Amino acid sequence: MESNTKQFPFVNWNRIFSFDAPITFVMTARNRGKSYGLRLQVLRDWENDGSIFVNLYRTKDDLKELKFSFFDECQMKIPEYRNYVFEVRGNKGYIAEPSKKEGDKPVWQLFCLFLVLGDSQRSKQHMFANVKRVILDEALITKDDPYKRYLPNEWKALSNLISTISRQLPGEKTKVRVYLLCNPCGLYNPYFQAFGITDIPPYGETWINDGNGKLILFFNEKPPDSWAESISTNTVAGRMLAMSGDEGRAMNENIFAGVNEDFISQVPKNAEFQYALVFKKQTFGIWIDWNEGWMHISRKTPKKTSKPIYVLQKEDARLNYLLAKKNSAVFRGLAEAAYGGLIRYESQAIQAEFALVLQKIGVA
To answer: What are phi and psi of 221, to 5 degrees?
Structure first.
């Protein structure tokens, strides 16, 4: 059948699959064939060896809303499978080959499971025989999306679910492969934290080693310049995104918005520690370089200090922590430094994380 020889468009999925990584993280611009490539491959898997896949959703609402559209896109975008029949029953998806005779009933076969990422306990009730691939689309969330949030301890939730699916014991090999797909939506996210990524990832393929060998293949595609220009000028959505500034360019060109290397600098030795700030369980050290006039934001704080530790929300409060109001002198000084362009960050990831603090105190 043609499906076994057809090349993937845009993103080079054939090359990605050749690495056979336990976990593959694919990041590129919109409309570059991320989802298409995997949909085509899971259909090929089923046709070749009868294996099934798991499609993950963050919440039950997402699952209810989106599970039916998965097959719609298979039929609309993959011509060679357009005449196949798909059906969703509960949280299971079934597939049947085209009927050979008019009036023949479909011969249904299990094709996939739809699961909620944060529901690993309930997922233990499923049988996961013959699962080959696990997919989470939109692994990174744009900060402007009012309807989506990362789960608490999302990386741990994913780890627990993979353990449930693979049933892998120490020393055993597993055929289960995990795929995380996304657009560049910000350096502050649970996946980059787990991977130890603090700066903008380089284009191309990068292996992430967990100390026991290669675990994660990070594939960051640089779309051809002609693609970025074409999508930004010849499609309605691309033109609309281009009008929205850096955030729009990020989606069209696969670049990170809101990250400026001019503001990245290590804390100098002569800088003085002023206070610590805790927000969403992340601790930031605030330092001042009086010689140059810069305020430095760092993960570093002195082991012993009499300087105060402030929190912005009650959830972060502990004994001896001070709950500071937005209009306090501390945050007025922080806002003035931000507006004056006087803040320097230890890394691009900290710049992205601290942007949430500034947003919280009213700095756009």
So the answer is: -85, 135
Per-residue pLDDT of 286-317, as tens digits, reads: 999 999 999 999 999 998 889 999 988 888 88
Counting Cα atoms < 13 Å in the Cβ hemisphere of 319 gives 0
Sheet (strand 282-289) strand order: 322-323, 309-311, 272-279, 282-289, 294-298, 343-345
**C-beta separation of 255 from 249 below 8 A:** yes
Q: Which of 122, 140, 147 is nearest to 65 (CA)?
A: 147
Residue 284 to residues 209, 275, 287, 296, 297, Cα–Cα distance (Å): 27, 9, 10, 10, 6
**Cβ proximity of 43 and 196 under 8 Å:** no
- pLDDT, tens only, 188-232: 788 988 898 878 889 999 999 988 889 999 999 988 877 777 878
Q: Return the biggest CA–CA distance within the chain.
A: 84
From the centroid of its chain, how far is CA 327? Answer: 34
Residues 6 or more apart in contact with residue 152 via CB below 8 angstroms? none
Look up residue 59 and give its amino acid: T
